[in-house]
Write a structure and sequence with these properties.
Blueprint: E1 2-5, E2 14-20, E3 25-33, E4 39-40, E5 43-46, H1 51-71, E6 77-84, H2 92-105, E7 110-111, H3 120-127, H4 144-163, E8 172-176, H5 180-191, E9 195-199, H6 203-213, E10 216-217, E11 230-233, E12 252-253, H7 265-272, E13 276-277, H8 280-283, H9 286-295, H10 300-308, H11 310-324, H12 328-340
Parallel strand pairs: 4-6, 4-7, 5-6, 8-9, 8-11, 9-10, 11-12, 12-13
Antiparallel strand pairs: 1-2, 2-3, 3-6
Helix pairs in contact: 1-12, 2-3, 4-5, 4-9, 4-10, 4-11, 5-6, 9-10, 11-12
Length: 341
């Protein structure tokens, strides 16, 4: 495998490009910070149009992991891997074997796990080549239930802040993205008595939510502007932007997607509109907590305890933002950056 260090105009410590042309492997590993410990971040498989697009995603996602782990007070840094390829047609055995070699070549500076487009089964393949991997079938397995539970607790905290009650019975939630995390979040919300409006580009993922949780389906382009109390983005990032913010009718934005704000200024725009935004890296840290079974030797009971504490973390962010009259995204960043220092 050919591994080259990539120079970028960013604050990242190191960025590497890996190529193995014989099998069609192309990957990027971005190490944003090891100030608090080894850089930890999932491996995302996506059919990026260009390598530059993949690089931009890796840089943004790895920075988000640094802030997520710092906010959670974990002894871990931030990184991310992206693999360029078509999820439906690539040779997973060959690709993830190569990816394991790439991770191993970094000597422990980067530890990976599953992410969008990858699974614990893929990480088992990676594990054959490196010990620097978590989220295995033999470990905690699928982190989705933990991520979803954390987002649910974040939504409860936001409801408490806005409506003075964390009860969600009768509250309408517009859920964008019905994958693994979206499904488990919908289950939590349905159990709490919330009404669900859902969308996904893959209609097969919607069916279980309709059948099990009485969800109402809308087209993907309609979900942002539907009449709902809460908008929960659980698909890809950048969904909160100049185009979408004027369409929002929800009072709260809280979901599992990474990098929901396309730009930092969009946090300010939400504040100006009176929409409460729960910073994504505060809400979706349950998946990282689940990985700490392997990374830090945590017990499952302790993971559940830490996931439920996301409620208090989110409340502290919202209270700081209100006290300082700043956006919630800026408040979360302030806390995370203090821990990085």
């Amino acid at each position: 495998m050919e591994i080259l260090e990539k120079k970028t105009n960013s604050e990242h410590e190191k960025v590497f490009i890996g190529h193995e042309p014989v099998i069609g492997y192309r990957g990027i590993i971005a190490i944003h910070s090891t100030a608090r410990g080894p850089a930890v971040g999932g491996t995302r498989l996506w059919n990026y149009t260009t390598e530059d697009e993949a690089l931009t995603d890796a840089l943004r996602l790895s920075r988000g992991m640094t802030y997520k782990n710092a906010l959670a007070a974990l002894p871990l840094g931030g990184g991310k891997a992206v693999v360029i390829g078509d999820n439906k047609s690539l040779d997973r055995e060959a690709i993830f074997t190569a990816h394991g070699r790439f991770v191993e070549a970094l000597g422990g500076d980067f530890v990976t796990a599953e992410d969008v487009g990858t699974s614990p089964s893929d990480m088992e393949i990676v594990r054959r080549e490196t010990s620097h991997v978590a989220g295995l079938l033999s470990g905690t397995g699928d982190p989705s239930p933990y991520t979803a539970r954390g987002v649910f607790r974040a939504i409860q905290a936001a409801a408490k802040h806005v409506w003075k009650s964390e009860e969600l019975s009768g509250v309408t939630v517009a859920l964008q993205g019905c994958g693994n995390v979206g499904y488990h979040l919908a289950k939590n919300l349905h159990t709490a008595g919330a009404k669900l409006i859902v969308s996904d580009i893959d209609t097969r993922k919607i069916r279980p939510l309709v059948e099990e949780f009485d969800a109402v389906v809308v087209e993907t382009e309609e979900i942002i502007g539907v009449g709902a109390d809460i908008f929960a983005p659980c698909a890809l990032g950048g969904v909160i932007n100049d185009r979408s913010i004027p369409q929002l009718r929800a009072q709260i934005v809280a979901g599992a997607a990474n990098n929901q704000l396309l730009e930092d200024r969009h946090g300010e725009m939400l504040k100006e509109r009176g929409i409460l935004y729960v910073p994504d890296y505060a809400a979706n840290s349950g998946g990282v907590f689940s990985g700490c079974v392997e990374l830090l030797g945590w017990k499952a009971e302790y993971v559940s305890k830490k996931v439920d504490e996301i409620y208090n973390t989110v409340l502290s962010i919202l209270e700081l933002a209100a006290a300082e009259n700043i956006s919630t995204s800026k408040a979360a960043d302030r806390i995370a950056e203090s821990r990085l220092r």
